[in-house]
Amino acid sequence: MTQSSRIASVVARAAAVTLLTASSLSAQAFNYPALQTPSASIRDYTGALVGGAGTTLLFQWREAAAPGMHWQFDAGFADPKGAADPLLFLGAALGKEVVRASGDQPLDVLLTAGTGASFGNGSWIRIPIGASIGHTFPLEDDMSLTPFVHPRVSIDYCSTCRGSAIGGRGRSKSTASLNFDFGAHWQVNREFGLRVAATFTGSDIVGSDETVAVGLNWTPAALSRRK
To answer: How many domains does the chain have?
Structure first.
């Protein structure tokens, strides 16, 4: 078995385990991984299934803003378990490359900053700032594997908070939280990749449990030849 075949097998098994365990996670639906690798995009699209207290569908669009910089737009819909109302969430972020791997050091670093809002029975706002850090391992046949970690600090606000952690319904609250994504991107060919990530958060507003996302990433053919 070749090296790429072994890696493909491991990634496929990890994705299968993620999908099987996603429905048992209990985080709020708008608490989801950023799915951000440590490099700027020219243009790509990601559709993902996120495990939480129900089913969450996430769509992401990244578009170049300048060399080594891109905008990211998020949109999604969550149907939490229990009596919670369905949620619509929207977000925007900016990614800027600050360090690229070289012979002197192996890491790529992308600074990130953004804002997002969720709407259901009340509203929630998050303003995260962080950095995606990782390394890309080239494989044969245009494949590659990029493990990454994405720590970030977030200012969280809710207009009508609910839950025992914040004392019931009808109260507004703001707080700061520390969040971490651990993930990997497997580039299958020039156009398509599989992206898997889990996020760990300490927010008592959007939920402090883990969420897991499995997504398919697509770069249009004309742009994939420029990567």
So the answer is: 1
With CA atoms as reference, report the closest residue to 185 among 108, 127, 112.
108
Contacts of residue 5, defined as CB under 8 A and 6 or more positions apart, other chains included, come to none
pTM recorded for the entire structure:
0.80
Give me the mean pLDDT over the 95-116 stretch: 95
Per the structure, the complete domain to which residue 29 belongs is given by: 3-224
Per the CB < 8 A criterion, the answer to whether 101 and 107 are in contact is yes
Residue 38 CB coordination number (10 Å): 28
Q: Is the pLDDT of residue 100 over 60?
A: yes
- DSSP states of 19-66 as a string? HHHHTT--S-TT-------SS--SEEEEEEEEEESEEEEEEEEEEEEE
Measured torsion, CA atoms of residues 43, 199, 140, 38, in degrees rounded to the nearest 10: 50
**Residue 23 scores a pLDDT above 70:** no
129 vs 111: CA distance, rounded Å: 8
- C-beta atoms surrounding 90 within 10 Å: 13
Per-residue confidence band for 48, with pLDDT thresholds at 50, 70 and 90: very high
CA distance 124 to 45: 25
Look at residue 224 and tell me whether its pLDDT is greater than 90: no
The CATH number of the domain where 160 resides is what? 2.40.160.20
Residue by residue, DSSP assigns 96-145 as EEEE---SS---EEEEEEEEEEEEESEEEEEEEEEEEEE--EE-STT-EE
Whether the CB-CB separation of 115 and 125 falls below 8 Å is answered with yes
Consecutive H or E run containing 153? strand 144-161
